[in-house]
Amino acid sequence: MNVAPSSWTDAPLLGFDTETTGTNVASDRIVTVALVHSVGPGRENETVATWLIDPEVDIPEPAQRVHGISTEHARVHGMKAAEALEEVVTMIADALNQDVPLVAFNGSFDLAILENELTRLGLPTLAARLGHDIAPVIDPLVVDRGVDRYRKGKRTLTDLIAHYGCEQDGRLHTADVDVSATLDVLRALVLAHPKLAGSALPDLHREQIAWHRSWAENFNQFLQKKGKTPDVSTTWPL
């Protein structure tokens, strides 16, 4: 007899990450993608799919230092972007249509560059395929800011791995390793803040919209006081 999962934490999750030519979601391009389907903690419960893509532009040296992929390597071994991203977006859309949440650390970046790449390539965007806003999404960065708002210090993936006591077993900034680490952080976050497990996915998605808006408004005020441009988007995940 099948038993229904007690919460979304016991059901499948789809982790998502990209490595790119840079940090401008409007003009940079995707070099690698990883999707990790996970049902419970442990690498034995993960199914990993990865794509290496020829971005058809030079990969700048700073980006190469981050993810270790050279222009030459991507050109020789990478898939065509349209073919690879069609596979990626189909898998993501299928998962979301089955209410499997998409888990991504600082996921606004990855979703924005994916949607822009699909548009550039003349392919339907993820939102267009779904016929509604991209949801449910879980971003451990946004959740951590929401449930532990006043904790001092940085909140990079490396920082959250250390804060929540997760083991690191691979080189970060390799897309599949980043995704597995993000899933570990999410599960540790939920253990530290059990009320998260009791949230329905639509409610948690809406909470993240509010958490991000609050954080972004405060950060923009901080930038303004420093004489900098307050340019952080207040919307999430896109």
Summarize the SSE layout with pairings.
Elements: E1 13-20, E2 30-38, E3 46-54, H1 61-67, H2 71-77, E4 79-80, H3 81-97, E5 102-103, H4 107-120, H5 126-130, E6 137-138, H6 140-147, H7 157-163, H8 175-192, H9 201-225
Parallel strand pairs: 1-5, 3-4, 5-6
Antiparallel strand pairs: 1-2, 2-3
Helix pairs in contact: 6-9
Can you describe what's shown?
The structure is a single chain. With 238 residues, the protein is of the alpha/beta class. Helices cover 45% and strands 13% of the residues. The protein is built from nine helices and six strands. The protein has helices at 61-67, 71-77, 81-97, 107-120, 126-130, 140-147, 157-163, 175-192, 201-225, and strands at residues 13-20, 30-38, 46-54, 79-80, 102-103, 137-138. It has a six-stranded mixed beta sheet with strand order 4-3-2-1-5-6, sandwiched between helices. The protein is globular. It starts with 12 loop residues before the first strand and ends in a 13-residue tail after the last helix. The model is unreliable at 1-5 (pLDDT under 50).
Properties at a glance:
single chain; 9 helices; six-stranded mixed sheet; 238 residues; alpha/beta; 13% strand; 45% helix
Distance between the termini: 40 Å
Q: What is Rg?
A: 18 Å
SS elements, strand count = 6
What is the N-to-C order of secondary-structure elements (H for helix, E for strand)? Answer: EEEHHEHEHHEHHHH
Brief write-up:
With 238 residues, the protein is of the alpha/beta class. The chain contains 9 helices and 6 strands. The longest helix has 25 residues, at 201-225.
